[in-house]
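Re: the 198-residue chain
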Amino acid sequence: MADSDHSTTMPPVTNGTTANALNRLPDADPAILLLRDWSRAHYVSQVLCRFQQRLERRLLNAQGSVSMDRQVDYSIACQAEVEATTAALKLQDSLPHIRARSLLGIVAKLEIIAGADRDIDDPTDFPWPHIASVLDDLKRMTGNLPSKRLERSVVHADSRRYNAVAAELVGLERQAVDHRLGRGSALGIEAVEKEAQL
């Protein structure tokens, strides 16, 4: 009897895990690509949140001597954080519409769910510990997804992009308020963007 098709290569398996994480990472798996994008947006939103909190602390410490520039900087920082968080949430919301093509894709989807649980009030309530347990079990069987720390230049580029969007929105809001009050705009969009880049 003729042998069946032997052209399909099976991944090497040792004790239930594949031999090399990079060789088995299915880059075409949309769930893994989603995890990479979500992790980046989520991290940048956390960086921008900390920056906004530092500016807020400075405003509170300055008490009555807060300049208009500092208020604008703070408004831009708040809006930049909102923009980055919104980007992460949009990616997170697309999760149910993405089909994993591998067990590692399922791990990636659960990583997003477990990562998002850090933002809820009580991550010790059902079902969060249970989801984390399933994720741990899957990781023991499949191995972890290779993690890559974001380069500082990538974080800075994303932060600048969100700041530019925020500066434009803050500038437009100011112009609208000034227009309603019958005043000329004290700060144009270009000035706000320049402030955001400094």
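The two ends are 75 Å apart (CA to CA).
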